[in-house]
Amino acid sequence: MSAIRILIAEDNDLVSLTLEEQLKGLGYDVIGIARSGVEAVNLAGRLKPDLIMMDIRMPEMEGTEAAARIRDQFPVPIIMLTAYADKDTVRKAEAAGALAYLVKPINEIELPPAINIALARFKEMQTLRNQVDELEESLEARKLIERAKGILMQRLGLNERDAYERLRQRARDKRAKMKDIAQAIIEAEELLGS
């Protein structure tokens, strides 16, 4: 199994070098170091890391804003780093989508559990997002099929079961999804008018 690829976003050279050494010593692959929030967003898009460790206070763009942009553009687990542990800072990190939060100076022993938990939570979130997308698509398809059945029932005087069977048979004949056949029927109905 290949090493987990990590992007560090930290403007303090001493902190970033120490963190890089700690991570490499633990077997992680540090693929880049961003010195600003803007650079973090750019490197995240270009390097496609498995995980990002992001300082909250960064020049040009706050780490929380950079994390939110990264989350929206190319989702990746993010661990926020900060010297601050106040409630407001923690809330900002949470709102930005951070999956873990480490207070500096970072103890090397804290890194593997934080990384493993962030990766596991991210994987769970991705699975849930995929399930929600599939359910939404299924619901949308069901709505189109129901609407198309209604059109067939009205236009051809079919009962519900026969209208469904006609849709299904047409999808088989065309080697298409029922949703696509239903969409075509709806569009034809709209074109011809009721």
From TrEMBL:
Coiled coil: 125-184
GO MF term set: RNA binding
GO biological process per UniProt: phosphorelay signal transduction system
Residue ranges constituting the Response regulatory domain according to the UniProt record: 5-119
Gene3D superfamilies hit by this protein: 3.40.50.2300, Winged helix-like DNA-binding domain superfamily/Winged helix DNA-binding domain
CDD domains according to UniProt: REC_DC-like (cd17534)
Record-listed 4-aspartylphosphate modification sites: 55
Pfam families assigned: ANTAR, Response_reg
Domain ANTAR: 125-186
Key words, A-Z: Coiled coil, Phosphoprotein
Keyword field contains Coiled coil: yes
Keyword Phosphoprotein: yes
Protein name: Fis family transcriptional regulator
Source organism of the structure: Candidatus Chloroploca asiatica
